[in-house]
Amino acid sequence: MKENIMISGFADEISSDFQKQLEVVTNLGMHYISLRSADGKGIADYTVEEVKEKLLPRLEKFGVKVSSLGSPIGKVGIEDEEGFQKQLEQLTTLCGICKVLNCKYIRMFSFYIPEGKDPQDYRSAVIEKLEKFLEIARKYQVVLLHENEKDIYGDVASRCKDLMDTLGGPCFKSAFDFANFVQCGEDTKTCWELLKGSVAYIHIKDAVSTDKENVVCGTGEGKIKEILSQAINEEGYEGFLTLEPHLVLFDALASLETTAAENIIKENKAKDGAEGYTMQYRALCGILDTI
């Protein structure tokens, strides 16, 4: 594997237990995780001191670094002012956590749009609120990674591109998620061509459009092999490929989605989180070997 390509992953899909997460990733030979939740608690609910005392020593013991914080920032209704104010406080804390963990990336979103409404009607409100997040990020010199999550303003490539054209810069980049684009009815190759100039981070998650089900990477409609080959071999992509398998129901899923977890993962594709994570890791390694 090229030394400038590093594999990370949302290790809370292995287990809610942080010790178990670290054991599995290190047994696979991985040296990075994306820290979304640990010991059943979301990273945005930790204080800087708790991270220093409870998480950092274990990361150091296992020799594992943090590629990004899998935060819920921006995963709140665009009209939820109380939720937005709380997230401004959380983002300030998350930036402090980044400094403790020597991590420069925070994954985030661009607000849920009310069901049945035209996202474009909320563009100015989205831009205004994202600017306030960016003020904090610039102060701490942290990079906010906008993920193309379903049902938010930036769920399709055209609106992701608009956000990057309007706000993109050193502290605001794209996290490219293949599966989410598939589940929004988008062609991932077209999405990549539109967004590749702003992509600083890639999520390895695949899906099929028939029932919008997540599948092992490379077996769905995400065109992961084709796009990674182009990105790495032709366009010089450097950085993280972060596993987000979504192959088995896991504890943190209920807090990540607006619908019931069973609607996101309809049937387990492995016996447990560790096996699902391992399946995804090996499938990605296989793709990287062939390209």
- Based on helices, strands and strand pairing, what is the structural class? alpha/beta
Helix-strand string:
EHEEEHEHEHEHEHHEEEHEHHH
Global mean pLDDT: 94
What fraction, in percent, of the residue positions are helical?
40-55%
Main sheet: strands, sense, barrel: 8 strands, parallel
Strand residue percentage: 15-25%
* Shape descriptor: globular
Strand order of the largest sheet: 1-12-9-8-7-6-5-2
Radius of gyration from the alpha-carbon trace, in angstroms: 18 Å
Distance between termini? 10 Å
Number of helices: 11
The low-pLDDT segments are: none
Give descriptors for this structure:
single chain, 291 residues, alpha/beta, 8-stranded parallel β-sheet, two-stranded antiparallel sheet, 11 helices
Description of the structure:
The protein is α/β, with parallel strands linked by helices and 291 residues long. Helix content is 43%, strand content 17%. The chain is built from eleven helices and twelve strands. It has helices at residues 18-27, 48-62, 81-101, 123-140, 157-167, 178-183, 188-195, 224-234, 253-256, 261-264, 273-290, and strands at 5-9, 32-35, 37-38, 41-42, 65-70, 105-108, 143-147, 172-177, 199-204, 206-207, 214-215, 239-243. An eight-stranded parallel beta sheet has the order 1-12-9-8-7-6-5-2. Strand 3 and strand 4 (41-42) form a beta hairpin. The relative contact order is 0.14. The model has no long low-confidence stretch (mean pLDDT 94).
